[in-house]
Design a protein that fits this description.
CATH superfamily: Clavaminate synthase-like
CATH architecture: 4-Layer Sandwich
Number of domains: 1
Shape: globular
Order of helices and strands: EEEHHEHEEEHHEHHEEEEHEEEE
Largest sheet: 8 strands, mixed
Number of helices: 8
Distance between the termini: 26 Å
Structural class: alpha+beta
Radius of gyration: 18 Å
Number of strands: 16
Helix content: 10-25%
Length: 296
Amino acid sequence: MSNAVVANLAYEEIKPKIGARILCSKEELLGAVYAEVLRELLEYRGVLVFPEVHFTDEEQIAFTRTLGNFAAERSSAGGVYKVTLDKSQTASAEYLKAAFYWLFDGYVNDVPIRASLLSCKVAAPTGGNTEFANTYAAYQALPNDRKALIANLKAVHSLAASQLYVEPQPTAEQFATWKKVGRNTLPLVWTHLSGRKSLAVGCSIANVLDMDPMDGLELIHWLRDWATQEEFRYSHQWKVGDAVMWDNTGTLHRAMPYPLNCGRMMHRTGLPPVGLTLTGLNLRPLWVDTTLSPVE
């Protein structure tokens, strides 16, 4: 690991191709002293870790506002979304089980959310790490023939596809409920205003357009395995008070297994989408409604 100072912000690189541990005080974060450089660092490192910063909900919202526009999710209480499998705390808890599989948030929106910030309120007694994979770095390292193959391909994303990982044999009624949430078509390769490109793969993909269904799924699984290999991946072991922000348009994430009834609790805020040029898509700044969408 290496240390660096950018615009007086001290941080520690976690791995060569992903992650930065931010080494400044909560007061500096809330005062927006480093807001501009944090936004830039987020894209280039993919994941920012704020160790044991112990944000209150109000402070987490305030910090999120320093980095861009904030919009409370409709399913949230007090401006934060409770990420837990406890149904008494989160109505959509059952859908969150899809977060045990690689995904990105907001795939049913025209443009997925820009970034998510998760803070740990109750850690799992065992397991429960959150893993991240840098899909900017993964795209850059792709063989040229694979880049050419996927350059213009698009995939259909849906809640139903992600829930089939959790329940492979749903009833017809279950499937119809999932289907009502909708579907969305997104490019496999996203071009950002910075000129950088990232992969958009994950458990939400139902099929790849203009490909034989089996060939398309084979390609998606290959791309997922490529993007999540060790050199592009970081696994965060949570401590109460930790906060982690990730670039949702350039990373995948998943929760690692933990006891389902342990009360693990994370609070989430996020930033609306900016900085993507997705050809043929509506770029209005939608905010994800996570009432039925899986998030980690």
